[in-house]
């Protein structure tokens, strides 16, 4: 009995401690779960509020521009009765705030209206043209990252040298040179004179329509179909417009990478690593470059979003059948449904990429959690 009593007394503190630890762990887990839910709710609210603001700006700008959507439908010689009937059918006779809420309801249902230019639903048109812009911008950002990041790192590691000066000039040219001028010069030199690249359009005219669209990305669709000739022809046409976009992305990324690296290389831990005899290559890429990955991802995300929304001029010059060309045609034809739909998609993509950059920022940097 005495031995049993001793055993019971010996395990009581452990049992109590285990209960306390279990309760603490449960409380901590519950707190983390609650913080996660609150963060998720805040993220969704911010995203919804931003999207609502985008809807409002897009709608009201579309209503104040000096373009009459009714005339785009019936023509400027239509009788007044026809004009009024079309105006009522489009809902333009209602108060502006009512039109806005009707517009929100239509967008949430995926209804962006009918395009006057194509006679098709705007949503269907955007599904058709957006992959072309996505393909060109993606190749452009790949070029920008693969060249811009090493250029920025090298310029920072050779600060003040001729190479550094040359890279800084490239960065300034990326801000100063107009996109349309660079595109036209590229067409005149590399296409018309040297025949190094393909001309306007996604493929040569005799290849057009031969590949069944699956993803909308012609490089991928041609590989799926086993059409190697079309793949290389599409790549030949894509090279110049993607390189022009890649140059502007490269200039921005190289400049920001150089700035981030200079700031890190002035830190004490980099100096300490050099004093300890760490090879310069490891000092640059391990000690200085790793800490800039987080802000660099944000820069790359913003650059990518900028390529997606800023490709209007490039697509017009290269007759690229993307969302920028679609938007330009819609503006020229006073096709406000198409203009509003394209603007809304571009804005939504920009918001989405920014939010994705924020998520990656939190994943890669524990301090941001």
UniProtKB/TrEMBL annotation:
Alphabetic keyword roster: Cell membrane, Membrane, Transmembrane, Transmembrane helix, Transport
Record domain ABC transmembrane type-1: where: 130-357
Keyword Secreted on entry: no
Molecular function via GO: dipeptide transmembrane transporter activity
Cross-referenced Pfam families: BPD_transp_1, BPD_transp_1_N
Membrane-spanning residues: 36-61, 136-157, 169-192, 234-254, 292-314, 334-353
Chief location: membrane
CDD domains: TM_PBP2
Keyword Transit peptide on entry: no
One GO cellular component term noted in the UniProt record for this chain: plasma membrane
Membrane topology summary: Multi-pass membrane protein
Compartments it resides in: Cell membrane
PANTHER family on file: D,D-DIPEPTIDE TRANSPORT SYSTEM PERMEASE PROTEIN DDPB-RELATED (PTHR43163:SF8), DIPEPTIDE TRANSPORT SYSTEM PERMEASE PROTEIN DPPB-RELATED (PTHR43163)
Similarity comment: family membership: Belongs to the binding-protein-dependent transport system permease family.
Record-given protein name: Peptide ABC transporter permease
Species of provenance: Pseudaminobacter soli
Lineage of source species: Bacteria, Pseudomonadati, Pseudomonadota, Alphaproteobacteria, Hyphomicrobiales
């Amino acid at each position: 009995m005495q031995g049993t009593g001793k055993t019971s007394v010996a395990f009581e503190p452990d049992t109590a401690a285990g209960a306390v630890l279990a309760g603490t762990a449960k409380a901590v887990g519950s707190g983390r779960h609650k913080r996660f839910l609150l963060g998720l709710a805040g993220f969704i609210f911010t995203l919804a509020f931003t999207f609502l603001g985008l809807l409002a700006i897009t709608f009201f700008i579309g209503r104040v521009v000096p373009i009459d959507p009714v005339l785009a439908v019936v023509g400027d010689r239509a009788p007044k009765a026809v004009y009024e009937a079309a105006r009522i059918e489009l809902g333009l006779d209602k108060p502006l705030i009512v039109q806005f809420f009707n517009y929100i309801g239509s967008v949430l249902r995926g209804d962006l209206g009918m395009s006057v230019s194509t006679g098709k639903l705007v949503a269907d048109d955007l599904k058709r043209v957006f992959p072309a812009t996505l393909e060109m911008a993606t190749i452009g950002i790949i070029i920008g990252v693969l060249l811009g990041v090493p250029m920025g790192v090298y310029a920072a590691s050779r600060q003040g040298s001729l190479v550094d000066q040359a890279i800084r000039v490239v960065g300034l040219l990326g801000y100063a040179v107009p996109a349309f001028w660079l595109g036209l010069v590229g067409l005149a030199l590399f296409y018309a004179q040297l025949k190094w690249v393909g001309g306007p359009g996604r493929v040569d005219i005799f290849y057009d329509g031969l590949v069944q669209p699956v993803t909308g990305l012609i490089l991928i669709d041609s590989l799926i179909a086993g059409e190697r000739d079309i793949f290389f022809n599409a790549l030949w046409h894509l090279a110049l417009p993607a390189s022009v976009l890649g140059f502007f992305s490269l200039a921005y990324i190289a400049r920001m990478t150089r700035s981030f690296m200079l700031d890190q290389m002035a830190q004490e831990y980099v100096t300490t690593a050099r004093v300890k005899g760490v090879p310069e290559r490891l000092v640059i890429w391990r000690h200085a470059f790793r800490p800039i990955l987080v802000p660099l991802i944000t820069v790359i995300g913003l650059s990518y979003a900028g390529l997606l929304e800023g490709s209007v001029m490039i697509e017009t010059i290269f007759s690229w059948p993307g969302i920028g060309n679609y938007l330009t045609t819609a503006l020229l034809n006073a096709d406000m449904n198409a203009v509003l739909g394209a603007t809304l998609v571009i804005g939504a993509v920009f918001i989405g990429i920014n939010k994705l950059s924020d998520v990656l920022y939190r994943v890669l940097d524990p301090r941001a959690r």
